[in-house]
């Protein structure tokens, strides 16, 4: 029997890069469109040395139930987006949620009888136009939790440098911390990720890294805390040419994911009595500057 097709919910930068990966590896991948937002017939991805165009096959509800769903919407939209396709989900659906920011696992568990997995990626990309994505830098993708699902090999064919973790939580918090450092600073200073290393911004980036590292330590994620300095600077360098997703949102005057990134991290810091003055200042500055995009 052939493998069930993948379905992508949320066709932004990550959704388009994933769709391209599944298509390039010969796997069927349908895109779930938003009501009143029709999708074009194809989209284009500009890689480092070449550009490729991919046909878009749109999911039609009622055709057949969704067995494999990858959700890459904005973090604040996940619950609503899954609720909107709930009727089309198979009772045994495998759902992979791949977003920035913290999403409430309990809320999602109530929406499905299938299995829910979490994925996070440091792949960088940005859009020149709605359906033209520039692959801004290769990264690492981590997935979990529990025992390896039967679709893992196919996923790894489509998404290079993907790793399975029986416990994904430490990596979810690590990624949240990376985004808490990079995204608001790049948005506030309107700079590419790599520019955080220039002399003017380096000091406050480093202080943010130190504070986020202390939060990871307080949460008991020792391995991630120990490596956090290197992890964060490595993401900054590898995605140096990239405009962070938050800077892209600000530029397009779209709601940002700040509410699912800094406040959850600061709440945990407060609970564990970890001082985070730099991160708090960043949040305040962000809220004052972009009140309508928070
Ligand atoms: O996740 C990202 C984002 O922009 O949201 C990083 C890894 C910082 C890449 O830009």
UniProtKB/TrEMBL annotation:
Record carries keyword Oxidoreductase: yes
Keyword annotations: NADP, Oxidoreductase, Pantothenate biosynthesis
GO biological process: pantothenate biosynthetic process
Enzyme Commission numbers on file: 1.1.1.169
Pfam family, one: ApbA_C
Family matches, as SUPFAM superfamilies: 6-phosphogluconate dehydrogenase C-terminal domain-like, NAD(P)-binding Rossmann-fold domains
Domain of life according to the entry: Bacteria
Enzyme class: oxidoreductase
Pathway: Cofactor biosynthesis; (R)-pantothenate biosynthesis; (R)-pantoate from 3-methyl-2-oxobutanoate: step 2/2
Example GO molecular function: 2-dehydropantoate 2-reductase activity
Assigned GO CC terms: cytoplasm
InterPro entries, A to Z: 6-PGluconate_DH-like_C_sf, 6PGD_dom2, ApbA, Ketopantoate_reductase, KPA_reductase, KPR_N, NAD(P)-bd_dom_sf
Similarity annotation: Belongs to the ketopantoate reductase family.
Protein's name according to its UniProt entry: 2-dehydropantoate 2-reductase
Native organism: Aequoribacter fuscus
